[in-house]
Structures are given as structure tokens and as C-alpha cells.
Amino acid sequence: MTVVLASIWGVWAPYLPSFLRGLVITMEITGLGLAVAIVLGAILAGFKLSRFRTLRLIATVYVDIVRSIPVLVLLFLAYYGLGQLGFTLSGIASATTALGAYYAALLCEIFRGGVQGVEKGQKEAADALGLGRVSGFARVILPQAVLRVLPPSTNQLSNIIKDSSLVVTIGVADLMARSYQASASTFRPMDMFVLAGIIYMALYLVIARAIERWELNVQRRRG
Amino acid sequence: MSNDVVVELEGVRKCFGPRVIFDDVSLSVHRSEVVAVIGPSGAGKSTLIRCINRLNTFERGVIRALGHEVYGTEEGKPALKRDELRELRTEIGMVFQTFNLFPHLTVMKNVMLAPQRVKGLSEAQATARALELLEMVGLSHRKDAHPRQLSGGEQQRVAICRALAMEPKVMLFDEPTSMLDPELVGDVLATIRRLALDGMTMILVTHEMMFAKEVANTVVVMADGRIAEMGPARQVLSAPKTERARSFLERVLPHTDGGGVTDVRTHPQDQGGPIAGPIDSIGGSALWSREADEEELL
After folding, report:
1. Which of B96, B102, B112 to mutate to test the interface with A (most CBs of A within 10 A)?
2. Which site in A37, B63, B88, B253 is 20 to 30 Å from B201, CA atoms measured?
3. Does the predicted interface ipTM exceed a cut of 0.85?
């Protein structure tokens, strides 16, 4: 057993620095994409909850279209498609755009559900106290909605991390691309992709557990 | 409208779609008056008081509150601008059947939120006011707890403090004890009783007939979408004039002059007796209507 482990370690060790540089790029893409997705998703959710039909319609159409297109197609549209139109985006910018656009559509639905899921009596209590729409939302609805959307949003985080690996197709040197190169130059795809998988898994689990712990803490404090 | 009138309803009608909940409801509430609204489940009692701070809209008639000559609905159009409505709501305290405390905030913050955000009180001012109110209801030791850590009775008393912190000119109570375990009702009623003694104007939807008799000046019996009877509490509750009010009260009051049906709780011998006897009275007891309303809520 020790021998096997030692020999695997021997294969992995030289590539580890490269993999970790790739991990940084993966995290960068994921983080930027997620940031765009959260901001755009929140705006779209606001549209969906708006009193104005036009805004609701815009959000609905956006969500329906974007959600039904594979992320890879969105990525190629951003990278090659926009390039053809003269807006040349870097690989990372394309990935941020594609992932941000796609996950905004998914988060929009989660956010909307989170806000609508807050008990009706909460809004009524805020209204009855004369809290305005802004402070009623910011002080009463939003803090409760955030806790509700955390678990399904964490779920999407795992997907966005995994989808970030699609950038291998447009030549960004992320974790996926580096494991691919390593497997090609060593002829040991099993070892290299297992290592990549372990690193992806570690990234997700660390973040997910941190969020979960924070959530539990908040819930415990609220009794 | 005399200066003394705090809330006035004139020919108010409320529908949900084609269904008329109540119609032609007129009512004046004077300063320091305590009005208890009673009646069978589904009579629209809660809906009625929710119209006063416009948590519900209504279809016809006029409601005047606190001198604001507003609230009329001409063809369903609200006569109040959003800011005016918000302003008015700051002067109308509301206590809900389900408490509706803010679960993410501590007891203190629940009470402090609106005074700080709406009235612009400083942290220190809001803290002082909240502590004073919590002291009054005997809950200052729970100030750092979150609502879910409190019993229902405690939550409701905090909810009363939250409303009082805005220094309202009138308080609306929407079945404040209906969701409480029987042994927790007393503390909440004691708090309301104390407000009555302090001269607070209150409109109270309740199933607690004995409490209504004791605290209310005026009792309004709503049934079949109308005010069936309205008058001084003692008179309405012990000698109702209308048939509709009498038949309702006979079913919920332990000792009405009408006799006939009695409340099982006051006659322990009935509980051990054959099932045939008290079925009707169980169905009509105050205890039962509480449960029926809970079902409605679900």
C-alpha cells in the first residue's frame, strides 16, 4: 500500500505546482462568474417580483432563453461569437460572462423563491409598523430570504465550479487544462485526472462546509 | 366627525372576488374606547380590522382614521398616497394572531427597529423605550433572546411592545390569544387590560367573551356579513336584543339568560356524561372556535 501511494505521489509531485496555479485560475473564473451571477441574478429576481409587467416579462424571457442553452454554447458565443462582432474578450472574461449569464438565470429563480417564501405575516408586520418599502425589504425580508436561499445557492456553487472546467476548450490554463496537458505528456491520464478530481472536490467541500457552518451558527443564534 | 372620534367606518363593504365578506359596516370608535368585535368564525372580524390600517383593501364605503379624512374607495381607488398611508400606519398599532415577530432579530431589536428606522430615534433612545416597554410586560430579562426561544405568550407580549414602541394612537388586536395555549392567555390579556386602564383606544377581535365583557366598553357582534348588534359591552353580552346576536352568544357564553346551551367547561358533570348531551355545546364553545380559526389559518 505504502509502495503504491509512494509511486503515485512520485507521479503527482512534479505536476503539483502547475495544478495549483491552475486551481488559482479555476477559482478566479468561478469567483468572477459567481459574482456576476449573484448581481445579475438579484436584479433579475427584482424584475420578476416587480409590479411592472414589462420587467417581469424581460426577466422571464431571459431566464427561459439562457437556461435552455448549454453553458458550452454560451462560452463559445462569448469567446468566438463576440470576437466575430469585434468585441474580443480574453478567455477569462469570456468564461466570466458565460458562467455569470447562465448562473444568473438559475440564481434568479432561487432568489425569487427565497423572497416569496418569507412568511406573508412578516411583510404585514413591517407594513403595519410603517416601515417603508426599502427598509421593510432590507431589514425584514432580505435577512430572512438570505438564509432560505443559502442551501440551494451552495448547490449551484458546486455546479459553477465544475462548469468552469469548460474553459479548457478555449485555451485557458485552468486546473482542467493543466491536468489534460499533464496526462498527455506523461501518458498517465488516470493518475492526472484523479488528482484533478481530488482538487476540485477539495475546493467545493471546503467552501460548502464553511457556508454550512456559518448557516448553522446563525440558525442556532436565532433559536 | 367630532374630534373625539379616532376611527370611523361608514358603509364599508369587503368582497373577495364575488363573495361578499361583509357589507354596510358602520362604526365609530372614540378616544380611549375599547371595542371588542366578536362573532362566529368567518364573519369577517379580522378582515374588518385589517381594513383599518389597509392590510386589506375594501370595495365600498369610507374609513376615517385619526383625523385623516381619507381611506375612501371611489371605484376601488385608494384615496391615500403610499407615503400618507405609511405615515398613518405609524400611528396605528397592530397585533397579529400569529405574532409575526421578526425571527432574525432579538426581542430588543424587534421593538427598536421601527422607532429607529421610521421615527429616527437614536440607538440610545430606542433602547430606553424598548426596555421600558419590556419591563412593563415583564419580559426585560428576555431582551436578548430570539423570538423562537420564547413561548407564544411571551412572543405576543413582545409583539405588543413592538407596536407600542411607535406610540400609536389606536391599537388593533387581531385575535391576539387565539394561537396561545390556554395557560398563556392570561398574561397577554393582563397586558391588554393594562393598556385599557391607561386609556389606550383599542379595537379587539377576540373569542374571549369574559374578557370582552370585563375590558370592552362596546361590543360589536358580527354575523352573516353584517353588524348583528352593537352596544355597551355588558348589555350586549348579557341581554342581546337581536336574535342573531343572542343565538351566537348562547353558544359561546357560559351563563346567558337565554339558557338552553351551556359551556362544557363550566359544567364538569357534563364531561363525564353521555356523549349525546354536550355535542352542540362543544361545537359552539369558545375553546372550539379558537381551534376552528387555527384551521382557517392553515
Report:
1. B102
2. B253
3. no
